[in-house]
Fold each of these.
Amino acid sequence: MLSISQRGKEVSPSPIRKLVRFADEAKAKGTKVFHLNIGQPDILTPKAAIEKVQNADIQIVAYTPSNGVSSYRNALPRYYKKYNLNVKPDEIIVTSGASEGIFLTFLACLNEGDEVIVPEPFYANYNGFAEMANVRIKPIECSIDNGFALPTIQDFEKVISPTTKAILLCNPNNPTGCVYDEKTLRSLADLVKKNNMYLFVDEVYREFCYEEIDFFSVLAIAETQENVIVFDSISKRYSSCGARVGAIVTRNKLVLETLIKYAELRLSSPTFGQILAEALVDTPDSYMENVKKEYIGRRNLLYKRLSAMENVKCYLPQGAFYILAELPIKDSDHFCQWLLESFSTDNQTIMLAPATGFYSNRALGKRQVRIAYVLNETDLNKAMDCLEKALVIYNEK
Amino acid sequence: MLSISQRGKEVSPSPIRKLVRFADEAKAKGTKVFHLNIGQPDILTPKAAIEKVQNADIQIVAYTPSNGVSSYRNALPRYYKKYNLNVKPDEIIVTSGASEGIFLTFLACLNEGDEVIVPEPFYANYNGFAEMANVRIKPIECSIDNGFALPTIQDFEKVISPTTKAILLCNPNNPTGCVYDEKTLRSLADLVKKNNMYLFVDEVYREFCYEEIDFFSVLAIAETQENVIVFDSISKRYSSCGARVGAIVTRNKLVLETLIKYAELRLSSPTFGQILAEALVDTPDSYMENVKKEYIGRRNLLYKRLSAMENVKCYLPQGAFYILAELPIKDSDHFCQWLLESFSTDNQTIMLAPATGFYSNRALGKRQVRIAYVLNETDLNKAMDCLEKALVIYNEK
């Protein structure tokens, strides 16, 4: 019998996108769906950069170098300078989103069967990338009770086995909004150095830090330059998710050489996106200041609304634009689908991401949902009205 | 010791790109390098489509649906109609180039360790995609003596083992320029059906057929709709390699469902590229007619020049824009690097792709090079002057 592959059958579906067809059906019935499921900001992309793409003199939409357009790689260090990071163009490989960067790094650094420690809950697609690359995620649990702070170094040490080759963090964290401070990151850097492991850090939400803690990049740690690999992207900071432009940054030359071989296999990152990305490097700081102000308002609103709901557990996220809330429900997958299939109030409903997909141990996410605060405060308020009502009705059943 | 992965050490480098740094060094010394190594056409991208991108009203460069922008998927069937193919939007998944399509299809259809039969020489990156997906390429040799025509069905049958799950063809073929006729393709379709295998066909050079043989797509074979998966791309036909827009086309619903899960993991294909791609669907036929005329001229010139060189074996390619020629050399890797490092005439040299990378058995490509005729006839003539002189000097050493 002709059949699909076993791994294809088993691949973890994206919790963020898997309910799309139920949302489409709800919309077809005329219901307004507030999308809080996906990290697609409603913030405008900087206009000047879009205009650069639109005014570019392009005769042939040609392949670009596999490691990225060199003028873009030469411009990017100016961006990192803002964070007091000294990054050289040769330390950057442009990728099609951070997603591609993570996947290719798994291939370049890890053998099949190797383990990566990932604090859970974690960005759901890490599961899929690990499956694609045939590496194993070793989860280490964080708790909503302390806002999903990282476990202690001793907790990390306890799960290191001979096949553990890396720790993967997302900082600021998707889906929890937790931001890791310098001290914590330096201890983890020491740990990976001691154990000859890599420290992979997904920093695509770098700009989105709302508390006193300044963002600290692991690229600033001199002692572990060989161990550290950072994933970056223009998707979130410039509201440019569709450009598909990310980057891998590392000082490890052997890793860079290996990554380039993989990058060559997929030929190049998109031309238009890289023109946009290059123009975005010179986005005035005021753009991000306004964006941040906007998100702080949304976060505060969301926190206030959720805190006021009965039996909802939440915390004030310090960064990114997500909150992982615990609801009075027993099955978040069922609840999120029910919101789209069977619920509406004033002809409106919401789409959330069930948290089960953000855990390796899916049971841990049964009562939690990820809420992306990517809508303006008016819509966010309406969305919270929906959630509040929905919880009452759902629990009456 | 911190180290890269074993697979990273072993991954097949792209023969098309691996000499890039030698080319850069030659250029830095002031030598003009004729690029015949890479399938990057010098033909202009249709202007009207670039203008559509440039005039698009884009406020947010947002994620697109994982299976592709729906207006583009709805437009594509109009393109396939020109080939009398009835393709439905739901049978299409937009990918970031055909490369991504092939890799994701390997994951979706093949288990680790499964075999894919590929006539060799074959597009070098198939090796890399197979390694990334942990599947094995089972090569089946074609010969320059009959213009790299496909082996017989019996030859294919002979290499089928219990773990052989697919045949992968490129039609028209890169790197040989061979075009497979309807009869041959139907026999192969029968063979895969009989053996419960997939037939993967990379049809990105569909437009580039120069002889009486009409292009025949395996999508037209009604009996094997479940078995057939076609990879497509706008890169070659519209000179849009940098847009990174390809597609997977299949009628197999289970494969489509599985592919969508993988497509969701990498979120989406590029937004700008898909706007371009959608506009390209309505490119007037005259564009391709002119392109074809141009390539026929180049091919004829290249064939004439190569045939006139001493001890060079070649054949008239029927399609695509490559020729795999046999030269009086013993080590094509050495020769191609030497061309860039140590040779120039009138301050000019050429970059070719050593054929070793296009074979599973690298020894078979030691005397062959792939020449992409992607330059105009004037430059092509100059490039052939270089090659002719280079062969004399190289063999005097």
Note: The mean pLDDT of chain A is 95.
Amino acid sequence: MINKNEIQEQIVCAVDAVRRTNPLVGSVTNSVTINFVANAQLAVGGSAAMVYLADEGEFLSGVGGAFYINIGTIIPLYEQSLPHIAGKLYEFGKPWVLDPVAVGIGTLRSCILTQFKAYKPSIIRGNASEIIALAGLWGLDKATKSNVRGVDSTDAVSSAKASAIALAKWTGGAVAVSGATDLVTDGSVVVFSHGGSHYFEKITGAGCSLGGVAAVFAAVANPFVAALSASAIYNLAGQRAEQKATGPGSFQSEFIDELYKATPEDVANNHFEIEEI
Amino acid sequence: MINKNEIQEQIVCAVDAVRRTNPLVGSVTNSVTINFVANAQLAVGGSAAMVYLADEGEFLSGVGGAFYINIGTIIPLYEQSLPHIAGKLYEFGKPWVLDPVAVGIGTLRSCILTQFKAYKPSIIRGNASEIIALAGLWGLDKATKSNVRGVDSTDAVSSAKASAIALAKWTGGAVAVSGATDLVTDGSVVVFSHGGSHYFEKITGAGCSLGGVAAVFAAVANPFVAALSASAIYNLAGQRAEQKATGPGSFQSEFIDELYKATPEDVANNHFEIEEI
Amino acid sequence: MINKNEIQEQIVCAVDAVRRTNPLVGSVTNSVTINFVANAQLAVGGSAAMVYLADEGEFLSGVGGAFYINIGTIIPLYEQSLPHIAGKLYEFGKPWVLDPVAVGIGTLRSCILTQFKAYKPSIIRGNASEIIALAGLWGLDKATKSNVRGVDSTDAVSSAKASAIALAKWTGGAVAVSGATDLVTDGSVVVFSHGGSHYFEKITGAGCSLGGVAAVFAAVANPFVAALSASAIYNLAGQRAEQKATGPGSFQSEFIDELYKATPEDVANNHFEIEEI
């Protein structure tokens, strides 16, 4: 089994490689948090390009290092563009992150998410309810029940463990469950990443931008290390920003500052535990 | 007639109830200020979910406590989705807030707004020009003339009083006119809420997010108290944020912080006057 | 040839006129930075109205002082609306700013940009790669080669000089190339505007909002003075904000504050050099 030191070394490499190489990451993402996602991606050292059209997503899939798909605020256009882009990412062997926001609401959303199963996203990031619901939708874990309410999770992170493992085994990638303590798994190991801030629930986009940042790291590291690096830098920056913030408004700008200032060693040393499955 | 103490007690209850129950509010809102709307809704204690599709809006109308419709940056998709969602809100008896941004510009905008008349929004929030124009469009007050210029008001709040009362009498709900002093009416009483900041006109979204926050309060209080609570917390937080801000950029984050920090008593004690009609 | 003092006097007049007259500027712009564009336009003293529909753009073209078109995050709707709006702006003789974001990516984007040639935007603002690519697309400078990568420029500002001059000669307006030092030309004179901040590359929307602000100035000044005033206020505010910021998050709000606080004289005195062609 992989040990803590090895993981930390790989996190150092990932954070450092992003800062040095400024990887381009394309995104199709929701209109609520699109600005925050882009700014978070830039703060950690990536380059961001957001599109909606199929051919533009395909182009960025080809030239970029990774891609981020977030299905919040879906529009009819996505029916054509998202499966096309996901298909190209799979065909090109490019890493991509899926954020199944509000899975279970609406027909088109379920229809698109169902099609994504075949294109095996390298990283799936969601809250506990979303991870459980997606594993259910894909027929990978029908035992666990989900309680999605709008875009919020009403389930605890731990309750999504079986679903997360099932999803990771299917994709061969990693799954990250966001919550008070984040859970990241590649299907064989589970890591719990600590830190963060209570303000994460008082601003919109903490989850979406974490997914976008995971895509930046996925351009330079394997899905498991990328997902873990993203969770670690979020938990670190969240904790630091909370100490300086006087409310959720100031927290947002402090948080982006801390994402920008975190060193590779800082990120690697953020508290996490490993659990063999 | 309702007296000041009774109103203040109800504001305390509304602000407190939102903090305790974290009501879910769905929105269809413009792309310019969508992030600010969501963050304001979260700051006062609500939960925000933004959608564009008819079936998703219908779902949130059913499970949420209230809904917010802002027709800024309309797209052709709204032709189907907005009347459908408004119709379901009316059918379900769910409170909803209408923000008739830029009423009078464009054919589709007028067409959609005309259809909303039958679905009686619980709260209508706009600047003076928008309230006058909407009352004219709905044939409720043809005497007053509106001067909409883009998304700005060129009319004084007081000039919209007759239109606001006419609209409130039609809907049976409340109407809030935003300006230097805000006017809120349920058709039988007019309240003037004081405070705010000159920065409200130097940032985008002060009005939109006020509408979104009114929807959060409408999930736990009657339309009149909800509209008044929203105006009061905005006027209070605006005043406090202005004292700490060094410009419109810092004002935005200070303002969100102050929305978050305001206590129910603070909000209820924000200066207002009652005028019988 | 125009001398430095004359230019400075015209910048003073432009910045002052915007503050006094609060010109209305309509925009069709991308969803990533739409909020930042509007807030920057308000901070310098303009009024902002964002739309997507053809008839609404036409209306704002008629009543507004200038218009801003940014083709980032294009959607199928733009195929009809953008050429229509640009055509009306040309017909009405209204100044408009084109931001050819990511020119070269996707079929629709090239198709729309090609049509804009006939409608001669008063100001074209882009990074070096975009300016070179647009001059190539319009057949005005086929000698220079562009290296667009997503939305980033991989070319130096100086390498776009010939393309910028060729574009300005075609439109009869001005061209602004953004980079470490900004280049602004009207086809007969080239001005280099100094200052800015390394954070401009670490936030999303520095370029877009510069284009939006150029449109605000274009409502009160000729295209060359407008483009130069916009570059000058950006370089000044960027430099000042950087001194107060502790990262890209705080930089954003400091920057908006500095845009708001800059006096006409401050802006006119920001360092620039003139070069005769």
Note: Residues 233 and 267 of chain C are 5 Å apart (CA to CA).
Amino acid sequence: MSDNTDKHPPGPRSCPIPIAQYPHVMAAHGGGGKLMHELVRRMFVATLKSPELEAEHDGAVLPVSPGRLAFTTDSFVISPLFFPGGDIGSLAVHGTVNDLAMCGARPYVLSAGFILEEGLPMEDLWRIVCSLRDAALEAGVRVVTGDTKVVERGKGDGVFINTSGIGLIDHDLRIGPTSIRGGDVIVLSGDIGRHGIAVMAVRSGLEFERPVTSDSASVAGIVAELLAAGLEIHCMRDLTRGGLSSALVEIAHKARRAVHIEEKQIVVMPEVRGACEMLGFDPLYVANEGRFVVILPAAQAERALAIIRRHPHGRDARIIGTAVADERPIVTMTSRIGTRRMIDMLSGEQLPRIC
Amino acid sequence: MSDNTDKHPPGPRSCPIPIAQYPHVMAAHGGGGKLMHELVRRMFVATLKSPELEAEHDGAVLPVSPGRLAFTTDSFVISPLFFPGGDIGSLAVHGTVNDLAMCGARPYVLSAGFILEEGLPMEDLWRIVCSLRDAALEAGVRVVTGDTKVVERGKGDGVFINTSGIGLIDHDLRIGPTSIRGGDVIVLSGDIGRHGIAVMAVRSGLEFERPVTSDSASVAGIVAELLAAGLEIHCMRDLTRGGLSSALVEIAHKARRAVHIEEKQIVVMPEVRGACEMLGFDPLYVANEGRFVVILPAAQAERALAIIRRHPHGRDARIIGTAVADERPIVTMTSRIGTRRMIDMLSGEQLPRIC
């Protein structure tokens, strides 16, 4: 963790709970007494550092300007806790920050609620809290309120994290499926399938020549630039559980419009494609944690593309399709060989506990 | 559940997921596909009913006036899920609504994040969601955004719920320990220890002649009246894990003032006292979920008391002590027989998974 702490000197530089004395999380760390207060103060408050957390009140009190705000919540139960490209701590920030961004909001504050399983190595918790802090700093959002619970062994799985977030909306756009118009184009911000495959590879012991890392990242910076450019964004959606296809099917249903996409415009890393073939997955349904679609008037698509591509997480952005008015709310895809097929929502479970 | 649904005709009147087909929660209910969308739409959106939930966007977009807001989060892992006087659903609303109230805020909106264990009876989930809805309606707050995850058997415990909340602050008071002044009095809103004992009784198979029910309730209505009366509230704190004593010790530390309380002013139901003696607990340390202390100038204490006592949950309100300036930040109590002792924070774990 020295890299992280070097970047952010204010917090503790090594695990602030004495490991020799408390190598693992114990039931009493959630009991409301001295041990819990020590854990909260030394592990969470000292590391996540914000004036609101330091007040240690029942909640954070925040100033707010008139207008609209976005509010979202996500619980993270990913297994394993650590994976190539991230861990449950960074993921818990990215997931919620991205949900705020998809509402067209600038992430303002986060809450963090930890459900710890008795026996969790204290060092693992420390790594996760540091990673959560770093992801929050990078996304420009601060953790202002939190909660810690401990459950017995076998009643949890290491750690689950809930983050909820408030974002500020300082424009007048109504961003959502019902704002989509016929002729709008669909821009996808990058290659797909990396998060799901990175996690599955760890679980199944799969090895790659060039390792697949999760795409887990905040897209709030990209979205802020799209908004600042004055683009008339009609809808955005990040591609998490259920992948690109489930996101598009949901959008088509809510928008009551058909969506057509072109397979050849959808970028998939060769390693991801290979792993999908081996494991029997379709990349269209595999989870992502740093990819989104933005739907806007065709005339503005190239400008949007240029903005997204300037970002490291947006280098592979492409226009992948269009929304069509006056048709049934279905999603169709023209394949590489020119055939057309309907894309449906995932029918069962593909990758459990991917986020 | 017929009572609940009769009160609120808009939602489904019986479990909206076909029990014959899906008697239990399955992994696929969290997989991001069709089954999850059915569960979200039919169980959560249709029952909790709010325009924001119905939009099924990544987050809720809400109007807000200039000023201050309160933001808080709590994860609920109580075991058992159902207990005399409530269940995890109502508790998840009361806990978060009360945290907002303690900040002097009027509860505005809630999020609800469910972590379900595979195998949870669908009927139990339905009861819990109904109970959560009823508690939210009663507290005057609506659920505007949510999340559902499913973990494998043995990696969770039925259901964990995180609720986060936003409250609106429309006064200029700075409510918190640092606002406490020497000579302020401490008003306790009711009898203590019922929540912890009600839950422990179920766990240990203890039976009472007159059953002890949890005090779990929203205190937001009482707080709204205290604020509307123009009382100069310096600090409030609800008494959850760690009980009255832990709350007072925390306050004394943060306020850097001594707190003196009188044991004879603290109301404890005879059944609760008896159970505490039998189980070896001190009621001062037992969890509550509908009790709080309010600390304010002595001259206003009687008015506060009168307001609190008008509420069914505040009938046993008493002035229990005072804050003293220029002393060490400790809590002392004069016992029934006139001796004085120091009150410390709970040192370990007393009642695990009480909230």
Note: Residues 122-139 of chain B form the longest helix (18 residues).
